[in-house]
Amino acid sequence: MIRYDILKEIVPILKDRLVVCNIGSPSQELYQLFDQPSNFYMLGTMGLCSSIGLGLAQVQDQTVIAIDGDGSVLTNLATLSTIANNPADNFILLIIDNGSYGSTGDQPTYAGMATSLTEVALACGCKNVVECSAKETSTELAKAISSEQMTIIISKCQPGNVDVSVIDEDPVYIANRFSNCIKELRS
Amino acid sequence: MPTKTDKAIVDSLVRNEIGYITSVPCKQLAGVIELVEANESIFHIPSNKEDEGMGLCAGAYLGGTRSAIIMQNTALGVAINSLVTLIQFYHIPLPMLISYRGEVGEKVACQVEMAIHTKPLLKQLNIPYYHFYNSDQVATLDGILQHSQMCKKPVAILTDASFWSSAS
Ligand SMILES: [Mg+2]
């Protein structure tokens, strides 16, 4: 299974949830599979998906699912220490770990070599760190939501992207639509 | 021990409903950071690097809480991509309370190297900046914070060594 297959399987779980999605192929694939106002697509800024997700989880009560990648987490590796030391039980970090920089031509990442993001997360002090196969991801994600405890899921899958077009939505439209959605949930 | 100036800064942040602050430390800003940490109406989260901090602030703002970052000017280089492709691109207001190291009164020569580039970089990035060199200027902070929310832009408050030595 590749990232696209995982996204396809978790769409029913993502429905009506607050989702922050990583830059490049992940956002483009999710946008094509299942667009909704509560999806926040990153159009730039490599590495900050988990940080945006954590900040969002800390100021409101709804569950936040950040869909990040191995390359992106490696770019902002210290994020795992910030997450561990500032736990928010409505926060789920789903790292789709295909051992590859998917959006730039599938160059290998160190997460597919000697480095284990699962062990890095544990060493940073994260609790509830779950490493699973691509096939198990939707089950683990559903479990994490119902546990109401901050969870880091590392989903191991094959590298590869599907051919989707870039998101041609305006960033301010994406942000406003997302914020308004949260305002409605709050009231 | 936080000074009256530190307190005036934090009072202004609270008055302007800044409810989420991330910080990367600086000696000059230690008193402010101490008060921010102690303040119950502010969620304070230290970050490891300023670009990470900008991600946190963007998330909090999207969630409906006004955010701000406390950092050193030396970190501007680290944060440029995040400022441009996240904060500016998505129209996120972000007051940056910056310790302006390397100005007159600085004791560490290397800090001057980045001080020389600070204003030109902010100018190039179209980020409004306000140079605080006297503690009386804290009185203008309310207006600056309102301005950032109104135009949904990052703004830089550059507090130099003269500012901090005039603080009481
Ligand atoms: Mg990858």
Can you characterise this structure?
- The complex is a heterodimer of chains A (187) and B (168).
- With 187 residues, chain A is of the alpha/beta class.
- Chain A has a single domain (3-186), classed as Rossmann fold.
- Chain A is 43% helix and 19% strand.
- Chain A has 8 helices and 8 strands.
- Chain A has helices at 3-14, 25-33, 49-59, 70-75, 79-85, 117-124, 137-147, 171-186, and strands at residues 18-21, 39-41, 64-69, 91-97, 100-101, 107-108, 129-133, 151-156.
- In chain A, the strands form 2 sheets. Chain A has a 6-stranded parallel sheet with strand order 2-1-3-4-8-7, sandwiched between helices. In chain A, strands 5-6 form a two-stranded antiparallel sheet.
- In chain A, a hairpin with a 5-residue loop joins β5 (100-101) and β6 (107-108).
- Chain A is globular, with a radius of gyration of 15 Å.
- Chain B is of the alpha/beta class and 168 residues long.
- Chain B has one domain: Rossmann fold (3-Layer(aba) Sandwich), CATH 3.40.50.
- Chain B has a 6-stranded parallel sheet with strand order 2-1-3-4-6-5, with helices on both faces.
- In chain B, α2 links the parallel β1 (18-23) and β2 (43-46).
- Chain B is globular and about 40 Å long.
- Chain B starts with a helix and ends with a helix.
- The model of chain B has no long low-confidence stretch (mean pLDDT 97).
- The chains are: A alpha/beta (187), B alpha/beta (168).
- Chain A binds chain B through residues 20, 40, 42-60, 76, 78-79, 81-82, 86, 171-172, 174-175, 178-179, 182-183, 186, and chain B through 19-20, 43, 45-49, 51-65, 67, 81-82, 84-86, 89-92.
- The structure holds magnesium ion (MG).
- Residues 69-71, 98, 100-102, 109 of chain A line the site of magnesium ion.
